[in-house]
Amino acid sequence: MITKFRALQNHAGFIRYFKNTSWMMAEHFLRIISGFFVGVWVARYLGPEQFGLLSYVVAFTAIFGSIAKLGLDSVIVRELVNHPEQRDIYLGTAFRLKVLGAFIVMSVMVAIVPFTSNDGRTNLFIFIIAAGLIFQSFEVVEFYFQSQVRAKIVSTCKVIQLSLSSLIKIYLVLTEAELICFVLIVVFDAFALAVSYAIAYKISKNRIFYKYFDPNIAKQLLKASWPLIFAAFFALIYMRIDQIMIKEMLGEYEVGIYSAAIRLGEAFYFIPMLITISLFPAIVKAKQQGEELYKQRLQQLYNLMFWLAFVIALLMSFLSDRLIVLLFGTPYHEAGQILMVHVWASIFVFWGVASQRWLFVENLQILTLISTASGAVVNLLLNYTLIPVFGVMGAAYATLISYAVAGYFMYFMFAKSRENFYMMSNSIFLLRKRK
Fold first, then answer.
1. Rounded Cα gap, residues 37 and 43, in angstroms
2. Nearest one of 172, 169, 101 to 134, comparing CA atoms
């Protein structure tokens, strides 16, 4: 073991990828910690009604923002790896497609917003945040650095943006700023990240790519990315439609209460991502060594995911009321009951993150789209049915059931994924394989 470890220390490729992954994990962890504590402070300051309005406009814009991305994220990274000599053409084409996508989405929003129950101020906030969609076109620079295994640059840009954003939010709270200032900071975040990307790309002595565009490559990219466009859209519907429907059916105050609960309930969702990043390469290697070892390692991963999520959900259920009041304050005390239900969805989220990697290894990505779309439809229907009856708690029940459908029961519906369903089921009883 020591010999192997020393060999890895001297392996240039391993060191390069290890450092690359470490930078990504460190930045992601810092973003979660900072975002959570600063976000809680902002929520305490704004109060349930204003925080609910802010959460609503962010969720509303995010759903459309997922379409503006055009599903190009992973596609462009793959193409840059496979065709590094055409870097400028691919980056320029993807950049222009994203800019076009942003303008199309904003046009669609202009047509849709009048049919909501929003007042003029709410619509103004929506369009202010929507303007930031243009800046997310600069994400193509991040994809370039990803293809070069240079996460340090990307992580540095994100940490700079995160630091500026956090400091400004703290300043706004201390100076008792108006709600519109917190809306503007959402746009500033997108702008600051775009500027840092542009500076990083220029410092790396790369040529300007904005002027390049190839219609044939544009068609090729869109042909490869269209399933991902729908998958991203359904994923945002799946995760954020509850806030929008609560606003339409109940009001902004209820959105604030619900948003506080889900912010705490989702605080642990980074754990399965970090675990799979660390463990899944070993599972893929196990598949090369034999199917039995591969399934054994995968079962162990599902076991770990279930019991981690179970323990977290159990503890949070007992502590939900106290944690909500401690972190968000007495005005949010109703969120404790919502958190008590919502937190159990983490079991299906933890399983889901692991199973997504399994789908990739087995080349069954189409099931990702099917399961996500199913979860979105179930969530939409249940929210429509349960919110009028149970209020905000109805949204919590809808989330729990829809997450279970998408992250667990859908795998039973298809022969190719049924064994994965059995492995997740076996993890409840710590079984090694289905008997």
1. 10
2. 101
